[in-house]
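Extended Data, record DDE Tnp4 domain-containing protein
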Amino acid sequence: MNRKKNTKGFYTNLVKELKQTDHEEFFSLFRMWPEHFDILVDIIQPYLIKRSIRTPLPTELRLAVTLSYLAQGDSIRSKHLEYRLGNSTVYKIIHETCQALWFALSPIVLKSKNRFDWEQISNEFMIKWQFPNCIGATDGRHMRIQAPPNIGSSFYNYKQFFSIILLATCDANYKFTWIDVGQYGYMSDGGVWANTEFAQDLQSTFVDLPTPKPLPGIDIPFPYMFVGDEAFPLTTYLMRPYSCKTRGGLTEEMRIFNYRLSRSRRTIENTFGILTACWQILRKPLCMSVENSEMLIKALVCLHNFIMTCEEKISVHKRSYCPAEYVDREENYTMKEGRWRQQYSAYFTDIGRVGANRAGAIPVGLRNYLKDYFVSDMGKSQAPWQEEAALGAKRINLPPELIE
């Protein structure tokens, strides 16, 4: 059967035809348009060159096998039958192509940032999400894997399945800016964030962040920082919301601060959501070694950034990889959930607390300063709807028994 791949295989008989005649179906199979597929072939081809007496499989075929496997989320066996390739050949193709995608694309779409890159990201967060000096949102997810042999419970998480952890940051446009893949699934305490090289470099000021810059309308310099949820530690470079367990309850100013931070933090939730909605392989345990699972996830992150970058030149309402309705949006001061939440949120598992809850005096002071800034005249002018959105019924003259 495998010998007929050149005459009866899926690639020869259908993929080439779709590439010429049905671009929408081609996108459905591979999550990208034919022109972007061709660009990607040229990028990864040098990483797939083989020295062999036998004629190597074309890069186009290797990429088609890998993308359809990742996009459709089906089995190695199904690809073996579709493309008329051996089971072991398909497995090897997918692993080698994921490696090529990571090594070829990561320097392009996930490159290390300098202070000018961070400033650009900050400007976009301010324009889109009205959060000054924000250089990204961060969060983590458990990525399901099959039980590794002879490992014990290291990968068994608090939700009672085997996983590796993906920690990431993103920009204002739902593109990943940094990732850490592979920490044990059982790690759901303060060690997860602290164990990453990125967090250690931030703590040691090795990351090339911009120098502190005054908030709009203020003369006092204020540091650049990431935003995260309550699972992350509060530091001078990472801002998190006030806890709902705050002694005495949350004040109105705290609620407004949490609202402003949440709007920015949702970018990372949506980034993870788009990734899982588009690549169905992530909706089930990855049936491969831990090392290959890590490489597959890295390749998917690069593919996500590559396609998001390709679609930036297309009108938002005409995009296919990330349509406008896929992500969260605001309507009449109310957050409308993106389509990915309605369809795919069940495949996500938060990693739990990843940093210490105790914060030093300086980070606490910075958060309080930013809280007061948001309710100042300048802060209100950036998001005039914030009181209505953050306080809701508390600003409406309802009977006390109807107010939370």
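Summary. Residues 395-404 have pLDDT under 50 and may be disordered.
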